Amino acid sequence: MSVVPVAIIGGGVVGAAVAYTLARRAVPAVLLEAEDELARGASGTNSGILHTGFDSKPGELETEMIIRGAYLRPPVLEQLNVPVVHCGARLVARGRDEAATVARVAEGARANGVEVALSEDGALDVPGEAVTDPVAYTQSLAAAAAAAGTEIRTCSPVTAIRQRRDGLVLEVDGSDDVACTVAVNCAGLRADEVARLAGDLSFGIYPRKGEFFVFDPWEPLDRILLPVPTERTKGVLVFPTIDGKVVAGPTAVDGEDKDDWSVRDEAYAEVLDKALVMWPPLEGSTPIGSYAGLRPAGRGGANYVIGRSRACPALINVGAIRSTGLTASLGIGERVAGLAAEAGVELGRDRPLAAGTVPARDEPWWRRAAAQRMEER
Questions:
Q1: 124-134: per-residue pLDDT in tens?
Q2: Domain 2-376 coded CATH 3.50.50.60
């Protein structure tokens, strides 16, 4: 049986960021990922957009994590050689009602300390928005942690959690069990199920499906194009990828099946009609790929559940982290490190980490997302 101060359950971008942050503080840890590769779930099937928090509600924990993550991220991207395109974003109002909404968004952005520029015609420019390869980002965080001593285990689902006087024992299928002072539950869509293994029934997660379509356009796109958001969703975006393609999406379809990664037949029309309004050059284009991501949404609107479990204080839950998790991941990692210290884990002095060895890939992240889901149908 392995014995470590911290065990991290889940190898998406949030789990990788927690591992990276703890490694910076010289905390021995093991990361346990159920799949055969990191970022196989929501982290590897999202937009890859790194947000600034310009349209996040001031005062909420999610907003705090997004803004903190955006502050921490630039030197990390540079140190770990993560690909990123600093393209900025534009949001254009169409009609009086949308113009009023955009003006409110601009006020919120300034309250959040995010640079924006509102023009007289109602367009809002957000220069800090960027795009990255979300799989490379996740793998780069984990590789840097591994180079600093963190153990990364794939094909290692946690099947049971037992409490003991000085921490927890995690039963792991396919490899040695792990004894730890603290476990961090970053299991994405399965975070509520992991919590239940420790007797914690405090939150639930359902999948919100977001479907995307990838195009190889005749005209390049030089920025992220954003619709005017609603209370429920940020809507369909049109944005460039780091390899010069253009993606339109996502949809927002609530479901119950955490294994349904299929793209619905009607999704293309739902996405394209809205995308064409923002970027007419998509007219007549045929997608070269499509994929669906399942975002872990909290039941009852309880998103960004980050804290020590009342039922099992040695378990730190990081659940219901929505699509903004890519952006907020480093902020979440920092917060989790503080919670681990409260639970008795000794933190060393913070230090930057050198880049580790990232697995070579011969295809872009969006192609992997599309291919893996076709295989699972």
A1: 999 999 999 99
A2: yes
